[in-house]
């Protein structure tokens, strides 16, 4: 992203990827000293269409972006990068068609990250959930949601998990509050399987799982979950999930500071994994 921002998604039709591309195109038009009306006229497009491109409500085709970049005097590596961004913004995984804007946006952003750092106090992080555990969590999130919505959202969650086993796998550092591991989401059998999955996946070199024990007492994560997405070629982003939409913030240091303090209070990974394995005996 080109500037420090806090973006809310999930409350309207614009996607995060569309907003990001639109912001870049609008900034380039301004730098070129052109009005929206002038650009729309030269392209033979309605001004309302250009406005929708620049707000992210509509993602332009690659030839349209190429034409705009020619008008704005953008060439070379910058032009190539923006054309790639346009292709990326227009591409959608098969499962994305059936999920909410918020779910699709987060998955897209996560797909570009090289590392995710997260803290969850009351639930196992989505990237580490089994399918049955995830169903129980999704059902509890809003009992009014029908089974079709649950299965669509579950498919998106399972698709995201493939990043952990890619050729260039996502690095994951997860801090889980002990309470999440005692809570029998889905029942004893589901929890036994979930805890076993945590033990198994923690053996992967790109996955670091640590438990924040009850004995820690009050801690910096009591205000809610924390997730930071790290990027090699862009600003890092902190995400805050709410029922009214998700927020993406590029001022990540307050969240990173809280995560460092939480991580310092956890059990080391080896002891965390041993604790998780032992906790399976609770669920009989």
Low-confidence stretches: 1-13, 93-99
- Major beta sheet, specifics? 7 strands, mixed
- Write down the secondary-structure element order: EHHHHHHEHHEHHEEEEHH
Number of separate strands: 7
CATH class of the largest domain: Alpha Beta
Radius of gyration (CA) equals 21 Å
Question: Which terms summarize this structure?
Answer:
alpha/beta, 284 residues, 2 domains, seven-stranded mixed sheet, Endonuclease, Chain A, 14% strand, 434 Repressor (Amino-terminal Domain)
Describe the protein:
- A hairpin with a 6-residue loop joins β5 (about 225-230) and β6.
- A 7-stranded mixed beta sheet has the order 1-7-6-5-2-3-4, with helices on both faces.
- The protein is an alpha/beta fold and about 280 residues long.
- The protein has 2 domains: about 15-90, Orthogonal Bundle (434 Repressor (Amino-terminal Domain)), CATH 1.10.260.40; about 100-280, Endonuclease, Chain A, CATH 3.30.870.
- It has helices at about 15-30, 35-45, 45-55, 60-70, 75-90, 100-110, 130-140, 145-160, 180, 190-200, 255-265, 270-280; strands at about 5-10, 115-120, 170-175, 205-210, 225-230, 235-240, 245-250.
- It is built from 12 helices and 7 strands.
């Amino acid at each position: 992203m080109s500037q420090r921002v806090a973006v809310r998604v999930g409350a309207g039709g614009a996607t995060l990827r569309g907003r990001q591309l639109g912001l870049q195109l609008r900034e380039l038009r301004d730098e070129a000293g052109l009005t929206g009306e002038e650009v729309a006229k030269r392209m033979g497009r309605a001004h309302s269409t250009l406005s929708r491109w620049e707000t992210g409500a509509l993602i332009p085709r690659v030839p349209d972006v190429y034409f705009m970049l020619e008008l704005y005097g953008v060439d070379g590596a910058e032009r190539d990068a923006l054309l790639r961004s346009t292709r990326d913004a227009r591409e959608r995984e098969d499962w994305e068609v059936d999920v909410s804007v918020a779910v699709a946006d987060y998955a897209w952003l996560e797909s570009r990250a090289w590392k995710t750092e997260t803290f969850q106090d009351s639930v196992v992080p989505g990237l580490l959930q089994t399918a049955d555990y995830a169903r129980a969590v999704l059902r509890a999130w809003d009992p009014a949601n029908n089974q079709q919505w649950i299965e669509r959202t579950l498919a998106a969650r399972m698709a995201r998990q493939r990043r952990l086993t890619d050729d260039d796998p996502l690095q994951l550092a997860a801090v889980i509050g002990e309470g999440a591991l005692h809570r029998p989401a889905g029942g004893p059998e589901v929890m036994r399987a979930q805890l076993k999955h945590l033990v198994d996946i923690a053996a992967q070199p790109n996955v670091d799982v640590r438990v924040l024990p009850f004995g820690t007492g009050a801690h910096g994560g009591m205000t809610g979950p924390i997730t930071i997405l790290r990027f090699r070629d862009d600003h890092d982003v902190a995400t805050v999930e709410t029922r009214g939409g998700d927020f993406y913030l590029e001022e990540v240091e307050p969240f990173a500071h809280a995560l460092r303090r939480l991580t310092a209070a956890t059990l080391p990974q080896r002891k965390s994994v041993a604790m998780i394995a032992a906790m399976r005996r609770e669920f009989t």
